[in-house]
Amino acid sequence: MTAHPHHSDQQPPPPATSRRTFVAASAAAGAAALTGVSLAASGPARAATGSGRTAAARTGSACTTVPNRYDEPFEVCDDELFVFMANYKPFENPGFFDTVIGNALRAAFPGLKVKAVAWDEPVRYEDLEAAGVVPDIVIEDPRRRIDRDLEPRGWLRDLTDEIRSAGIDLGSLNPAAVEQIRARSDGGLYGVPLFVDEFVLLHNKKIFDMKGVRPPSNGITYDEAFRLAKKLTFERDLVAYKGYLQHPDHYLEFNQLGLYPFVPGTSENPAPEDLRFDITSAGWQRLGANMERFLLHPHNIFTSVDDYLAKGSVAMAVDSLWKLNAYALSPLYLREGDAEKWTELAKGVELGVTSVPVLGRGDGAVYQPNTMAAFLPPQSKKKAQALQVLKWLVSQEAQVELARHGMKPALRSRAVESAFGAAIPELKGIDTSGVFWGDNAVVTGYENTEYWDLPLYMVFRQHVLQDGLRVSSALEVTERTDIPAYITSQVEAGFDW
Fold first, then answer.
1. Between helices 222-231 and 282-296, what is the axis angle to 10°?
2. SS3 of 26, please?
3. Are the C-beta atoms of 323 and 3 separated by less than 8 Å?
């Protein structure tokens, strides 16, 4: 399988030799709608030779060549609004951006030329930085990448006043997504949420039918899910069926109690040696004990949530929303070359989906939002245009378009919910109400902290599953030993998230 979950904090970036196949470039006839300046229509990314500034003969605009590891021609021109996207896998699929939002964007701004490119297609952050090119809009994961990629490059500015002056209503957007960005914004607000790659509970109805068990419904509790997992972990005809898989790293990182692993100090930018952590208090212990029973249940061995499709012998698996669309075999979400293989694998699955389990009866909190947000770098020479595009991106018109194509928008409205999946015929007949069930948990206690990647994967994948520690001990070892050692190693390596 070539699909992967949204990258975990602890997973390394793809190796330098990786190659993806999609460069999304959208364009129209000019910039009159925003700037009053008429521009000629643009096509795909123009070929570039050499390096540095070049002149585009067709338009007379100045262009900057961006060398890259693949030696592919790539340049960004002054008459284009440059949108750079990273860390949402479907953006790498040919035509995805144009289909889900680019075409609608062109219609909304008929005079605006847009070049929209996904990371490594063929350029990366470091390539842009080396060439002196800064995107006008960056669409990124705020939880991990503000501190890792954007802030070190100076590509962030506090948008609080501009959001207010532009009339962007933050109150209409997913409050947990807004708060997640605020938690990383050093007292301000660096970005605006566009959509949430929600975590959902996928289930295979075929396995439930084999055991005569009713599939889960929205609002299922972890206690109920565990009872189902025990019934659905069995062996038949030399096939081992697993009842339940959930990535333990994501479970802790997006925890449904909104717990933050850092202890607030006296500064928004504390020195590394002043960082303090808490993953051993009562809430963390509750989270740990809840997950431990699933991981240690006999024969329900954690491998990968990808096994839901890859093996067809997993009854329930928590995974991200884009996987639902891919597993339903929407061509929009399938990577090149996967369609034939996935169509064959899907024969072993009757796809169902609900909300992720909640911690207790009456609870309504699902995972903290797996947010994708828009950022407007201060170096952009098109700040006004970028702000107007951002305002449109969170409008009902644009957010309904995202919903139609199987994405969970940041905007909360009945129109958005009712439009979900309308442009994905493969979802017809699948109850997708679980995508909007409940509320994303809101992170708390982040004030006066500095976010660093933390090795929370050590808790379960190392100390519980490999070392055999009880989860209470695993949390303590990780807090006392693993996290401080990791911070020290990052400082010694020259990083300052």
1. 10
2. strand
3. yes
- Under DSSP, the state recorded for 84 is E
In a 10 Å sphere around its CB, with 0-12 CB exposed, 13-18 middle and 19+ buried, how is residue 152 labelled? Answer: middle
Give the containing element (helix H, strand E) for 203.
Answer: strand 199-204
Q: Is the pTM of this model over 0.70?
A: yes
In whole angstroms, give the CA distance from residue 91 to residue 7: 14
Structure tokens at 90: 């479907």
Q: Which two tokens stand for residue 474?
A: 């695993």
How far is residue 27's CA from residue 113's CA, in Å, rounded to a whole number?
Answer: 4
Encode pLDDT of 474-492 as tens digits.
999 999 999 999 999 999 9
Looking at the DSSP bridge assignments, the partners of residue 199 are 320
306 by Cβ neighbours in 10 Å (0-12 / 13-18 / 19+) ranks as middle
295 Cβ neighbours under 8 A, 6+ residues apart = 248, 302, 460, 464, 465
Q: What is the dihedral of CA 374, 375, 379, 380, to 10 degrees?
A: 20
* Residue 373 bridge partners (DSSP): 140, 193
Which H or E run contains 295?
helix 282-296
State how far the Cα of 341 lies from the Cα of 274, in Å rounded to an integer. 51
Closest residue by Cα to residue 21 from 447, 429, 337: 337
Please give the Cα distance from 171 to 168 (Å, whole number).
9
Concatenated DSSP letters of 38-69: ------SPPP--SSEEEE-TTT--EEEE---T
Q: Is 166 helix (H, G, I), strand (E, B) or coil?
A: helix
286 pLDDT more than 50: yes
Q: What is the pLDDT of residues 137-179, one digit of tens each?
A: 999 999 999 999 999 999 999 999 999 999 999 999 999 999 9
Instruction: Write down the H helix ranges in 337-459.
Output: 339-345, 383-393, 396-404, 414-419, 457
How many angstroms separate the CA atoms of 475 and 423, rounded? Answer: 44
